[in-house]
Each structure stands twice: as structure tokens, then as C-alpha cells.
Write a structure and sequence with these properties.
The complex is a heterodimer of chains A (417) and B (256). Chain A is an alpha+beta fold and 417 residues long. Chain A has 13 helices and 17 strands. In chain A, helix 10 packs parallel to helix 13 and helix 11 packs across helix 13. The longest helix of chain A has 44 residues. The radius of gyration of chain A is 31 Å and the shape is elongated. Chain A starts with a helix and ends in a 6-residue tail after the last helix. Chain B has 256 residues and is an alpha/beta fold. Chain B has nine helices and nine strands. In chain B, a hairpin with a 2-residue loop joins strand 4 and strand 5. The chains are: A alpha+beta (417), B alpha/beta (256). The interface between A and B is medium-sized, with 28 and 32 residues.
Chain lengths: 417, 256
């Protein structure tokens, strides 16, 4: 029967190929969507890694995460520098990265920080930040820009940029007396780091030298060299990324910071907060999944329709088979084998397409966005998906097979006899 | 009257009556009809005389309301669905007017089809110690189809005459005791008809195979052992009220 089914399919290769393609497309799509979904989730939940605690003024954990890591929204309050020093001095604390927000350049956030940022900040699978060009900031007016900032605004090392107060794209107040110099450009990370302009904490203070009571002081403003001579002290930062010597201490340190007496502070575990945030935005993820399930469904419907449409013109063949001794059950089997072959062919071709897609896509994503999509063998979920499609294909195949069975019963051995 | 267990009969019909559902008048009513083993019977009759119905009854495609049909000493009413299919492929070779072959199979595969579904015919085909392919090629050669040239050709490249001979080779493979041919020559021209018959007879005689040959071309009748007109034996055609008195209480069963 398999031999006959194979010959029969070969004879009908254009329609068979269409059915295989339809299934292959849906298989490739659902696998790719599923992969992107999972990789996006893992990449998202690893936007920061290696950081044990994020500390900010007391608010909500998601809000703290949003402004400290994603630079969305604003902080309700700052952390005083004394508190920063206190936390830094705790004996289980290995390092702290202060983050000072509030200014922007062409819609991109300016992040005031220290050199610890480049040393300790980790993302993804514990990857550290790397420079694509130039050096980290050395001067008060040096800035290290993320890859997207550099690409979109076409900045190169040594370009001058003017930072504006506030975070809108069109800022009314510009710190144009103190232009910054691009000292380095970071490699793509696929995280909000790509969209940030990093300057030293002194740089942030320097921008605000002429800034009093919410407006710039009148006059020429202080020029850069004068500012460099000044003793710029940071009085407060927006958030603090904390690394501990041992992860085991994370809950104790969290409690200690949360109950800090001098100032109301909040410490959150980034992994937990990221997971919380992901759950908020996972509606989109589910929508993606639903779409790809629909595509699989469409592929199967196409398989059924290809087989059903062929059935009428194949009535004569069925009759010939019957007159040569095939039972209606054999006719049923023949159709089932055909749909199985089509489904299996579609699944294999779909797997192949999926790997070609992710192979090409990962190159592109790595270069453009620094997203690493690893080419892994199908995992358990993938096998379950493929199994489900296979079973659905077999079930779909029984519909035309049943039809053929009934027709071959009523048609008898030929249209004549 | 012959009795149904006559060992010399390959086909035996006794008091058979058949009518379509929802129609009180039977289309076929035969008191007695038999074919002896190895006998070549020519059956003629105009359209609507019940030829196809008769063939369907013998091939166990249809079941009569009354009476008994036996083929190769098997009472057909004793067979169930699957058994009828098996009976048919084991014992009857069928040739139709046209479209006998599967277009996507090679000539060889087409001829060998019955051997896929019948162990008996597979065994018989290899009786002479030949492989199935050898027997197929021998039959194709006997049908004057040079086996080497066409055995692996797709069948739709053959002429109609060649296709009909391939169909005969398929009906003959595994030496079934009966061949039913339903107007196999109507698509052929008169020259090839005679040649077709000769080839059919030669091979059928070699295995003592009975032939029931249906055609409305009376000129072919002389080559057969016996020739008959269905109108002579089908009493349903000159039906009077008495003939239709046979009960129609139980509906005819369409057999798969």
C-alpha cells in the first residue's frame, strides 16, 4: 500500500507539494514564533543579570525596575549619597553601581554612573559590556553611548553632544554651555543599555552647575573648563545596582535595606521583578502563540481540502483499485498513508525551514541588536508541538479517507459495474 | 435443473431475482443460469437488459432478494462484507470497457495489483517457479506487449488497445477460475478485437479459466463455446404480474 500511495503522490506532485509546503510553513512558523517567544522571555528576564539587588526610593518593585533598568518613567524620589555610602560600606556588599537619571539627549536617556558600571554591569548570560569603539569616560564631559544611540544619531567617537534637562524629545532647557564629547560606543546588547548615554556622576552635576530652582541662572553660564576646576559632589542618585559577595545573603541584605532607618528605601531582586513585569506584558506573547496556532490550523485545513478536492477526480482510481481486489479498508488506508506522508514531509521541511530562518535570523539579530538566538536542537516543547501537528495531520487525513471509503462503497467496482 | 453443487459449474444461479430499492418490479429474474469450468460464454443483450446487474450479482457486488448465486461452489449469500472482497479478488478477474488501470503505476505494478490483495493469486502466479515479475512479463509477452519495452512505462502512454491487454494480463495473473469481461472490446477497432479475443482465449485455456464475456457486438459470438442473449433467460424483461409476484419484502442489499 505504501508503494501505491507513494506512486499516487508522485503522480500528483504539484498538489502534494502545495500541501507539504502549507504544513511546512505552519510548522516553521510555530517553531520560530515559539523560539522567539522563549528567547525573548529569557532575554527579557536577563536584561540585567549578575545584579543581586536594585535599590531605589520606596515605591513599587515594577516601577523601580522600569525606571532603573528600562529607563521608563521617573523616580518618585532619590537616594541620598549618604545612604549610597552606607550600603556600599556593608560588609556583604561587593560593589554598587549608582545610577542618576533625569536628563536626555534627542529622546535618549542620559545615565549618570561610575566606572563600576562598565566593570560590573551584566546582561544576558552574564555578559559584560564591551566597547565597540573608543574608551570609557575619563573626563567630566565624556560620554559613552549605546549602540542604538550611535547608529540612529550617526555619532562617532569625539562628536560633541548637547544634553537637555528633562526626558522629552523636545526639551526646552538645554545644557548647551557644557557640550559632552563621545568618548566611547558600546557594542549592541539587546537591552536598554543600547539606548542610553552614559556619563559620570560628576558630568550630571556639571550640567546643573548653573541650574538653580528649576531654571538656569541668567547670563553666559559657566564654561566647561571652569566647571572642570570645581569640586563636583553628587548629593543624590536615582537608583543603585548592588552586587553581593555571596548570593546567599540576598534576602538578608534586602531586608536590611528595606528597613533602613535614615531613608525609606526599597530593594528588589531583579529576576523576580523582571518576571513580574514579563507577566504583565505576556499578553502579546500569548497573541503570538494564538496566531501561530491559527497558521497550523490553516495548514491542516489546506491539507484536508487538497485531499478532498482530489477525491472526486480519483473516484475512478478508487474503482480500479477496488476491481483489482482492494477493499474499502485498503482505500481508506491508502488515503491515510498519503496524508501521513504529506504531514511528515511537511514537518521535516518545516523543521529545515525553521533552522534556516533562525540561522539567518540569528546572524542578523546578533549584528543589529546583539540578541543571541542560539541554534539548539528541538527541545521537549518542540517535540510536543511536532507531535501534536503530526497527530492533527493524521486526524485531518481521516476525513478525506472516510469520504473515499464511503464513495468506494457506494461506487462499487466501477461506474458501470 | 443443475444443482448448485455441481462440481463442474463455476457459476450457478438458481431462481435469482433482483430489483432496485423502492421499485416493485425486479430488473433481473433468472430461473437457472450456469457456466461450466473453463467454459467461454458470450452474453449479449441490449442496454437495460440487466447485463451489468447480472455481472454485479456474480461478482458479489449486489445481492439478490431471492434465489441463490454460487461461484466456484461458494454460496455468495454466506459471505460477509470483507469476505466478499476477498472472494472476488481470489476467484474473479475483472476487465471493464476502459479505465482499468491506475495511471500512476507502471504497467508491471498494474498487472500485479491483484497479487497484492490475494495470497491465493500471488501463490498461483508463482506456481511455475517464476518470480512475480517473471510471470508478469510472461503474461505481458503472451498479450503481445513486449514486456521489456513497456513494463516500466506509465500506463497513460499506452494506446487503448494496449491498455486493454494490460487489463487482461491483470485479470489473468494468478489464474483465477473466472474472468468477467464487461464490454472490454467496445473501445477497440474490429481488427484488434479479434486479436484481443485470441490472446484472451489462449491464456484462459492454458489455465482452464472460464470467461463470461459481455458485449453487444454479436460478430464476436462465434469464437465462444456458448452464446446467449440475456433476454432469453431474464424473465423479468417480459414481466407480467405473475413474474413480479416474487416477494420484494426484503430490500436488496448493496454489497460493498
Amino acid at each position: 500500500m505504501i508503494h501505491i500511495a507513494w506512486k499516487s503522490l508522485c503522480n500528483r506532485w504539484p498538489t502534494a507539494l502545495l500541501a507539504v509546503l502549507a504544513i511546512a510553513m505552519s510548522v516553521a512558523l510555530i517553531l520560530t514564533v515559539e523560539k522567539i517567544r522563549r528567547d525573548a522571555k529569557s532575554s527579557f528576564t536577563q536584561t540585567v543579570s549578575g545584579t543581586d539587588l536594585i535599590v531605589g526610593a520606596r515605591s513599587g518593585s515594577v516601577q523601580l525596575l522600569l525606571y532603573s533598568v528600562f529607563r521608563i518613567g521617573n523616580a518618585t524620589n532619590n537616594i541620598s549619597w549618604e545612604s549610597v555610602e552606607d550600603i556600599k560600606a556593608r560588609k556583604r556588599v561587593d560593589w554598587v553601581i549608582p545610577i542618576s537619571l533625569g536628563d536626555s539627549h534627542a529622546g535618549y536617556r542620559v545615565v549618570g554612573t561610575t566606572l563600576d558600571y562598565f566593570e560590573h554591569y551584566r546582561f544576558g548570560d552574564r555578559r559584560s559590556l564591551e566597547l565597540a569603539d573608543g574608551l570609557v569616560f575619563d573626563d567630566v564631559f565624556d560620554a559613552v553611548i549605546g549602540s542604538e544611540v550611535a547608529a540612529k544619531l550617526k555619532y562617532q567617537v569625539d562628536d560633541k553632544i548637547v544634553v537637555a534637562h528633562g526626558t522629552g524629545n523636545v526639551a526646552l532647557v538645554k545644557h548647551d554651555k557644557q557640550p559632552f564629547r563621545v568618548s566611547g560606543i558600546l557594542k549592541p546588547t539587546g537591552t536598554p543599555v543600547d539606548r542610553a548615554i552614559h556619563v559620570s556622576l560628576q558630568g550630571i552635576e556639571a550640567m546643573h552647575v548653573d541650574w538653580r530652582n528649576g531654571a538656569t541662572v541668567k547670563g553666559e553660564g559657566t564654561d566647561a573648563d571652569t566647571v572642570r576646576q570645581m569640586d563636583l559632589k553628587t548629593s543624590a542618585v536615582t537608583a543603585l545596582l548592588v552586587g553581593l559577595k555571596s548570593r546567599a545573603a540576598v534576602f538578608r541584605e534586602q531586608r536590611a535595606i528595606n528597613t533602613y532607618r535614615s531613608e525609606p528605601l526599597l530593594a528588589v531582586l531583579p529576576g523576580v521583578a523582571l518576571q513580574e513585569l514579563w507577566n504583565l506584558i505576556s499578553v502579546a506573547e500569548k497573541a503570538l502563540l494564538i496566531v501561530s496556532v491559527c497558521v497550523v490550523f490553516a495548514g491542516l485545513v489546506n491539507l484536508i481540502s487538497v485531499l478532498l478536492a482530489g477525491l472526486n477526480e480519483r473516484r475512478r482510481e478508487m474503482a480500479v483499485l477496488r476491481s483489482a481486489g482492494a477493499r474499502p479498508a485498503n482505500v481508506f488506508m491508502l488515503l491515510c498513508i498519503e496524508s501521513t506522508v504529506l504531514t511528515l514531509g511537511g514537518i521535516l521541511l518545516g523543521l529545515f525551514l525553521h533552522y534556516v530562518l533562525t540561522g539567518l535570523g540569528s546572524l542578523f539579530l546578533q549584528q543589529q541588536y546583539g540578541l543571541s538566538i542560539n541554534l539548539a536542537l528541538p527541545d521537549r516543547t518542540d517535540y510536543l508541538i511536532l507531535l501534536a501537528i503530526g497527530v492533527a495531520g493524521l486526524l485531518a487525513g481521516t476525513i478525506p479517507a472516510l469520504q473515499a471509503y464511503r464513495k468506494s462503497l457506494s461506487d462499487g467496482l466501477s461506474q458501470r459495474l | 435443473m443443475n444443482n448448485a453443487n455441481n462440481v463442474n459449474a463455476i457459476v450457478q444461479l438458481d431462481n435469482v431475482s433482483f430489483g432496485w430499492p423502492d421499485n416493485p418490479t425486479p430488473v433481473l429474474s433468472i430461473k437457472e443460469f450456469g457456466i461450466k469450468k473453463g467454459e467461454h460464454v458470450f452474453l449479449k443483450g441490449p442496454s437495460g437488459s440487466g447485463k451489468t446487474t447480472l455481472l454485479s450479482l456474480i461478482a458479489a457486488v449486489l445481492a439478490p432478494q431471492t434465489g441463490k448465486v454460487s461461484v466456484d461452489n461458494i454460496a455468495l449469500d454466506s459471505l460477509r462484507g470483507g469476505q466478499r472482497d476477498q472472494f472476488r479478488v481470489d476467484r474473479i478477474g475483472l476487465v471493464f470497457q476502459q479505465f482499468n488501470l491506475l495511471p500512476f503505476l507502471s504497467v508491471r505494478d498494474n498487472v500485479q495489483l491483484p497479487c497484492r490483495f490475494s495470497k491465493i493469486r500471488y501463490r498461483k502466479a508463482r506456481q511455475a517457479g517464476l518470480t512475480l515479475n517473471d510471470e508478469t512479463d510472461r503474461l505481458l509477452d503472451a498479450m503481445h506487449l513486449s514486456a521489456k519495452e513497456i513494463k516500466n512505462k506509465p500506463v497513460n502512454t499506452l494506446s487503448v488497445g494496449q491498455q486493454q491487454r494490460v487489463a487482461v494480463a491483470r485479470a489473468l495473473i494468478g489464474s483465477p477460475p473466472l474472468i468477467i469481461a464487461d464490454e472490454p472490446t467496445s473501445a477497440l477497432d474490429s481488427d484488434t478485437r479479434q486479436a484481443f479475443l485470441e490472446l484472451l482465449f489462449t491464456e484462459a485455456n492454458a489455465t482452464n479459466c472460464a470467461i463470461l464475456f459481455v458485449s453487444h457486438d454479436a460478430s464476436l459470438a462465434t469464437a465462444f463455446d456458448r452464446s446467449m442473449d440475456l433476454r432469453e433467460i431474464n424473465t423479468a424483461l417480459n414481466a407480467t404480474a405473475t413474474h413480479t409476484s416474487t416477494t420484494n419484502a426484503d430490500k436488496p442489499r448493496a454489497m460493498p
